[in-house]
Amino acid sequence: MQHYFSLLMLKCRHRKGGRMKLIAGKVFSIAEDCKPKEGCTVSREVEGGENAIVIFSLDRKTDISPEIFSEHKFLLLHEGDLQVYQKEEEKAEGKNAVLSKGDAILCKVGVPVGMCTEKGAVYTEINIRRKEIMNEAVKAGEVFQLKELVPYGAGEIVNRDVMHNAKMKFVLMAFDEGTGLSEHAAPGEAIVFALEGKATINYEGKDHLIQAGEQFHFAKGGRHSVKAEGRFKMALLLTLE
């Protein structure tokens, strides 16, 4: 039985789930929609190209062996626990970066990077080229919470760019109570990650309540507005391919 289970783990380790199509105008949860499969690690590509976006689901006690990347990988953990390590010895000794739900990390380049989990993990990976314009608050190899990078302001909407280039923009927004964005059209495909609080998104004339831990997809040209229900923080990933 032990030998059979080991074979199952080996077979499933790099199982690819194919392209994940996001439906515009709908609140969804990556954590709920991409739950791990028993004994497997599964990847689902959301966006290809230079700024590829991939969702990974790792079952408990699975891992992705260390690889050396020529470009940064930005990881945002939606559910579970995730350990990012460089060497097998570091994993065994606990000398690795540990992420909890809501944490993020910018992986280093030019060194081995592996991921493992004890209880299971669901996370989004964004490919970040070295020539991207990166906010100095983000340090490669350090664990942080996105919502802590942007403060609230009385009666204000506070924005902070995390990274951007000609075809991609990742920005944080903090809405004070009673503030919001008036209706406008999305210049490209976009994903909203609700980080804290609640907000009402009106998309093509229909209201949708979104809260921390959930996501929302805008199609290019989709008309929408955002109204904070109390204080609200979100991340916006915009692609302009």
Q: From the 3D structure, determine the CATH topology of the largest domain.
A: Jelly Rolls
The value of Rg in angstroms is 18 Å
Percent range for β-strand residues: over 45%
Terminal CA distance: 49 Å
SSE order, one letter for each helix or strand:
HEEHEEEEEHEEEEEEEEEEEEE
What low-confidence regions span 5 or more consecutive residues with pLDDT below 50?
1-11
Percent helix: under 10%
Question: What is the structural class?
Answer: mainly beta
> How many discrete domains?
2
The CATH architecture of the largest domain can be given as: Sandwich
Biggest β-sheet: count, sense, barrel? 9 strands, antiparallel
CATH superfamily of the largest domain: Jelly Rolls
Say how many strands there are.
20
Instruction: Please state the overall shape, judged from the principal axes of the Cα atoms.
Output: globular
Structure, briefly:
By secondary structure, this protein is mainly beta. Helix content is 9%, strand content 54%.
Write the topology of this structure.
Layout: H1 2-12, E1 15-19, E2 27-28, H2 30-33, E3 41-47, E4 53-58, E5 63-68, E6 72-80, E7 82-85, H3 88-93, E8 97-99, E9 103-106, E10 112-116, E11 121-128, E12 133-134, E13 143-145, E14 157-165, E15 168-175, E16 180-185, E17 189-203, E18 206-211, E19 215-218, E20 223-239
Describe this structure in words.
The chain has 241 residues and is mostly beta strands. 9% of the residues lie in helices and 54% in strands. The strands form three sheets. Strands 2, 12, 14, 15, 16, 17, 18, 19 and 20 form a nine-stranded antiparallel sheet that branches. It has a seven-stranded mixed sheet with strand order 1-3-4-11-6-9-13, with no helix packed on it. A hairpin with a 2-residue loop joins strand 17 (189-203) and strand 18. It is globular, with a radius of gyration of 18 Å.
